[in-house]
User: Which sequence fits this backbone?
């Protein structure tokens, strides 16, 4: 029985091992990155298997996942990843600044 909710690649085809980029891939376009993320999400590969197969670091794979979920396929473009990373850093700094500037809660003593 076919999976009623298959994980789909960016081209809307069901993900499968034979459709993944070859292990010796050296040019990582957004679509290939998304295929690897989809394979991990579908359970076709574990994160460790994907990292070994494609010679990725765990941090790199996680950054692909975050960029894909946060910004879509465009977030996986090399220059977009850099822009997204800068945006995340800027947001983190803003949250830290806001937390430092927040007045203490009334009735609480330090």
Assistant:
């Amino acid at each position: 029985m076919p999976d009623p909710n298959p994980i789909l690649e960016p081209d809307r085809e069901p993900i499968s091992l034979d459709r993944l980029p070859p292990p010796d891939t050296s040019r990582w376009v957004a679509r290939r990155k998304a295929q690897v993320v989809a394979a991990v999400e579908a359970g076709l590969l574990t994160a460790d298997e994907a990292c070994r197969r494609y010679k990725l670091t765990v941090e790199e794979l996680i950054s692909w996942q975050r960029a894909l979920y946060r910004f879509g396929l465009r977030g996986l473009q090399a220059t977009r990843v850099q822009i997204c990373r800068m945006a995340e850093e800027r947001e983190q700094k803003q949250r830290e600044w806001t937390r430092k500037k927040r007045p203490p809660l009334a009735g609480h003593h330090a």
